[in-house]
Amino acid sequence: MRKISIFGATGSIGQNTIDLIRRDPDAYDVVALTGGANIARLAADAIALKADIAVTAYENRLADLRAALTGSGVKAAAGQNALIEAAARPADWVMSAIVGAAGLAPGMEALKQGATLALANKESLVCAGALLLDTAKRHGACILPVDSEHSAVFQGLVGEDIDSVERIIITASGGAFRDWPLDRLNEATLAQASSHPNWDMGQRITIDSASMFNKAMEVIETHEYFGVSPSQIEVLVHPESMVHALVGFRDGALMAHLGAPDMRHAIGYALHWPERRHLPVARLDLAKIGQLNFQTPDPARFPALGLAYHVMARGGMMGAVFNAAKERALDHFIASRIGFLDMATIVEQVLEDFEGSSSLIDAAMTLDNVSKIDQLARQQADVAMTKRTG
Ligand code: NDP
Ligand code: MG
Question: Is residue 284 within 8 Å of residue 36, measured between CB atoms?
């Protein structure tokens, strides 16, 4: 039996992961499940899967979790340290699906004990890509991408030499506002931004898809994970979300990965890798689909994408600044303190603030330094927000 843990088990990726392992319960020995505020879901899944331990990120919810687990034999724990301790419990395969920079430290800990880390938490790679990859290397651990585009690229590279890659193209659905004119975008409401045309995902990544901050994060993720230069990474708007990514080789060949927009494909690929097993995802009927469309993204309506290239050009720990400012700007948009386009303006302002701070940005990439920069960038995002809103 394979020992597995799921971080962010109560979220969209976590629930899709649980759906897959439930179909083959004898194959898995569940070590830890973690969640946040959704105690009922966390406890029910931990009991059903006979997990050793269930952990909520919030210390003030420990009593609720304990009560929900009474008599089940599943241990309860809460708080940041408990998350780290759960990640240190030996496991063969760990799903990293906490949302935000909060996923970085548990992911690092899982790598230190040599687990295969199935990485949905793209924020980890954006904030501290070099640190994460180096930790995996030093501990003989392995990171498998779960983001659909990166899983697609990974699959396109099997048996290929990375040096023969000329370019990597990741696709973007264009999100909720693909066809909206610029002057309408600042009026976009939270409800409108929270509804995705093709994918069913957590609220934060859905809004990031509408603003293209998600694609900006994924461009940086591509650069960090595959080690290709920024100039080799392209984004193509593809409204049908069926081609997830394309790898272009130096002989001119383009290898495309197609599949239904269902995260259980990428999760299942990482779960069974290096094998391929049957997965319960819809099969594409291309004759029925008939037509697939592609467009160049519009930089004026989606300024987030350009910021990603700026972050990569600056290097150092600018990715941690970018992610933290983006997370904070998103908090403010969700709380209706700013408009939709203000998110990109705030992030751009914070990047400018940090541009010249060489002692911070170019310091050694450690977990402590990343966390320090993360906090400072969140503060600067608040300053930029206050300036905008008066
Ligand atoms: P959700 O918001 O649906 O779930 C997030 C999970 O993290 C929940 O279990 C939540 O707990 C938990 N959580 C929230 N805040 C914290 C915190 N501060 N500390 C610890 N745990 C926390 O997100 P998604 O599943 O959509 O996304 C998860 C990750 O996967 C993100 O990094 C996202 O970018 C990435 N991803 C997601 C895709 C998707 O299809 N959803 C596709 C590709 C990547 P609770 O809900 O109990 O509060
Ligand atoms: Mg993606």
Answer: no
- Rounded Cα distance between 129 and 313, Å, is 15
pLDDT confidence tier of residue 390, bands split at 50, 70 and 90: confident
Exposed e or buried b for every residue in 291-320, given b needs 16+ CB within 10 A?
A: eeeeeebeeebbbbbbbbbbbbebebbbbb
Which secondary-structure segment (H or E) carries 244? strand 243-249
pTM for the full model? Answer: 0.98
Q: Are 190 and 333 in contact (CB under 8 A)?
A: yes
- Return the residue whose CA atom lies nearest to atom 27 of ligand 1: 99
Q: 2.60.40.1080, 3.40.50.720, 3.60.15.10, 2.60.40.10: which CATH number matches 2-145? A: 3.40.50.720
| Cβ neighbours for 75, distance < 8 A, ≥ 6 positions apart | 52, 53, 54, 69
Name the pairing type of β-strands 116-119 and 93-96: parallel
Residues with CB under 6 A from ligand 1: 8-14, 35-38, 57, 97-99, 102, 120-123, 147, 199, 201-202, 204-205, 263
Note the pLDDT tens digit of each residue in 102-136. Answer: 999 999 999 999 999 999 999 999 999 999 999 99
What are the extents of the domains in the chain?
Answer: 2-145, 151-389
The whole-number pLDDT of residue 30 equals: 98
Q: Is 147 in contact with 218 (CB distance < 8 Å)?
A: yes
β-sheet bridge partners, residue 236: 171
Distance 145 CA to ligand 2 centre (A): 10
- Is the ipTM higher than 0.95? The answer is yes
149 is in an annotated binding site: yes
Structural Rg of the chain based on CA atoms: 20
Handedness of CA 151, 228, 122, 46 (dihedral sign): positive
> Is 13 among the annotated ligand-binding positions?
yes
Give the CA angle between residues 168, 172, 177 to the nearest 5°.
155
Instruction: Report the separation in Å between the CA atom of 106 and the middle of ligand 1, taken as the mean of its atom positions.
Output: 13
CA distances from 361 to 103, 226, 279, 316, 376 (A): 21, 22, 43, 5, 11
